[in-house]
Amino acid sequence: MEKKDIEEEKSLTSEEKKLLKKLEKGELDLLDTSKGPINKDPKYQTYTDMGYEVHPKEGLLYRDSETISRQRKAILQLIKTLGSNILRGKSLMNISMPVSIFDKATMLQRAAIDFTYAPIYMEKIYETEDPVDKMKYAVAFYVAGLHLNLSQKKPFNPIWGETYQGRIGEDLDVYCEQISHHPAITFAYLDAPHYNLTAKHEYSLKIYPNSAAFRCNGYRKIIMKDSARTTYLIKYPWAESKGFMFGLPSFSYYGDIVIKDKTNKIYAMLRLHAGKKSFAEAWFKKSDVRNDFFKGLITKNKALLKDSSKKVFYSKDMLSYIEGNWIDYVMIDGEKYWEIDKQLPLPVKDATNPLPSDSSFRDDLKAFIANDEVEAQKQKEIMEDIQRNDRKQREKYVKKK
User: Fold this and answer.
1) Which of 40, 88, 300, 327 has the most CB atoms within 10 Å of its CB?
2) What would the pLDDT profile of 155-171 be if each residue is shown by its tens digit?
3) What's the whole-model pTM score?
């Protein structure tokens, strides 16, 4: 062990050092790695294509043994070098990661995928007159997209000013841009004849020894080009990944999804169970307790959004009842509005003539796509150094003013 490693390990407690030794010996790796992803590069990736399978209590279990092995090695090294910062849950959004655990895409390219159900459900909203029925399609649109972008592999972080241009289906252009470095903020935009979609992604992330909790602190906004200019604002739920270092790697959502129709003052609230006891006691029967299950409602009474008791479903102010699970279906008032094997998202294709700032021109990403990890890591570090230097120069300029 090098002197630097010895000094870094001094910050760990005795219990943390014991954990490291067990991890290095492989004594905590309880994963069955006999299964891998079904299809590594389909046009439309379901959660099974991305290496997951459904578990009744843990949400989705990840089964790509090669990716899991790479990630565990990388996280083990991070624990060694960063010590208690990881083990005590400090935010690591700005920590440089090795490309060995990366996906062959950037955060901008993933942001575009979030809009791929829009052609199906936005047109339904536009064609529907009743505000409550419109809200039902808005709920289906958002929940249907929760199973997208679940790749266990980390996307490349965009640099400030980086862009991505793509096309959804045959004629819908989507534009994404990294509009801030610290904090890291991504903005996505899609303009169609009958609607406009925007999204702001600002992630907060905390990593623990064997799990991570993260949330997008931004929003998704829908503006319909109907006579009322109906406008929806969507609040994101929390997500959790477990099993980073030992046990069964899994993914699940928890918390609330809130969709506001700002024009008609109508609200939808969905509570994702995700194994939280208070949710189970307040909302679910014993047989309902599944990490992928949710219940919710549509109402004009804003106060109901904060009511976690059973009586909320007996309120005279509940306009519609919602239930389902985010990896299978959405049912509202007994009718299914989304089923994973029936309503499929449209694929995203790269633009044929994008701006020079497009993600597709990144040297590290091009090297990684060509399976040259050494060159990809080198180019990634060069880009990060340039970005750090640019930030210092901007800060100096601001101080001079």
Assistant:
1) 327
2) 999 999 999 999 999 89
3) 0.81
Give the residue from 15, 203, 194, 170 showing the smallest Cα distance to 92.
203
Q: DSSP label at 40? A: S
Whole-angstrom distance, CA of residue 146 vs CA of residue 330: 12
Q: What span, in angstroms and rounded, lies between the C-alpha atoms of 353 and 305?
A: 45
pLDDT in tens, 54-111: 877 777 888 888 888 888 887 777 766 666 555 554 445 556 678 888 889 999 999 9
DSSP helix/strand/coil, 322: strand
First to last CA, the chain: 48
Length of the chain in residues, anyone? Answer: 401
- C-alpha distances (whole Å) from 301 to each of 177, 244, 260, 317 are 36, 41, 11, 6
Tokens of 239: 């997500």
Structure tokens at 241: 């990944």
Between β-strands 102-106 and 154-156, what pairing exists: parallel, antiparallel or unpaired? parallel
Token representation of residue 128: 């529907």
8 A C-beta contact, residue 268 and residue 51: no
